[in-house]
Amino acid sequence: xxxxxxxxxxxxxxxxxxxxxxxxxxxxxxxxxxxxxxxxxxxxxxxxxxxxxxxxxxxxxxxxxxxxxxxxxxxxxxxxxxxxxxxxxxxxxxxxxxxxxxxxxxxxxxxxxxxxxxxxxxxxxxxxxxxxxxxxxxxxxxxxxxxxxxxxxxxxxxxxxxxxxxxxxxxxxxxxxxxxxxxxxxxxxxxxxxxxxxxxxxxxxxxxxxxxxxxxxxxxxxxxxxxxxxxxxxxxxxxxxxxxx
Length: 245
What we know:
By secondary structure, the chain is an alpha/beta fold. It has helices spanning 33-42, 57-65, 85-100, 119-132, 160-168, 192-198, 224-235; strands at residues 7-12, 27-28, 31-32, 47-53, 106-110, 136-142, 181-191, 208-212. A 6-stranded mixed β-sheet has the order 4-1-5-7-6-8, with helices on both faces. A two-stranded antiparallel sheet has the order 2-3. Strand 2 (27-28) and strand 3 form a beta hairpin.
């Protein structure tokens, strides 16, 4: 089954970014975030095709430099900060089906803001997708603080909810808590038919799986400080840059 799967890789990026202007074209040690994502995607064994969805001619040109196709320009209404990722994925699927008369088995959504996913991460996601007959596989990382120690802050400064949760657990050491994860933005592998039926990325909990990635490969770029940290990680040799060079 795995060998027969055709996966469309979809690199997404819009011109506007409030937190970090021009984010998708910003560089880490000489390579743009778009370049990081496109290079690793192109090296994945299970990438049948890499296309880009963007409203920006500059992002389109940068993606082309690294081997991505640009079959369409994303409509302006899907390039706002309120447009959903699901709507962007559905637009790409609609365009492929309408203009090329074809479909894929799944679509791999890739966001440049999580630049350090490697080709083998994408391949592992596809293999998990096939093994579990999943509808969704997403990149995940361990949370910084277990939910046992998290609660709402009351308007009066109360931490009652957090303390009540702490009192219910038997072992207070953080290392004794069960592993909890959150999405890291590195990859979203979505079954084509599942997306067609539900019209949203997250649909059936029973067929959704996470690919656990370490903290450094899970770095997300949303601010200037994030970009500085990511650059430091590469420049100091904390991550091997060769997967994107």
